[in-house]
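Journal club side-thread
Mid-discussion, someone asked how the predicted structure for our own chain would compare to the paper's figures. Pasting it here so we can look after the session.
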Amino acid sequence: MDDYVARIRRYAEIEVRELRPDSAASLKRLDIGAGGTVVLLDAGGKQFSSEQFAEWIGSCRDRGQRELVFLCGAAEGFPQALAGRASLRISLSALTFSHELARVMLAEQIYRAFALLSGHPYPK
């Protein structure tokens, strides 16, 4: 995870936080800006290819979207207050992964997206 976070920092600011979603205080600590886009990792969410995901991130960037918040929830899902804020639900795979592994996979795909957008040879 640390490796991909360091790689992403070459392209964008990134902050990784682990919160306990069952706590009201945790939800308040998210501090998502009014213009922030909330993306939930959800088994029933939209599936992207890596190229499509990169295009989506690029379109957010091109529209001036400054904050993307990706949330990886527990097995019980997300609290309603959080789920209601989501602009998009994405699925990394039809397979089920632990949230720790899903976080690493998401970080790798975010890095891959920035690499694709910049023409970096990593994705090839």
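Post-session note: The domain at 2-118 is CATH 3.40.1280.10 (Alpha/beta knot).
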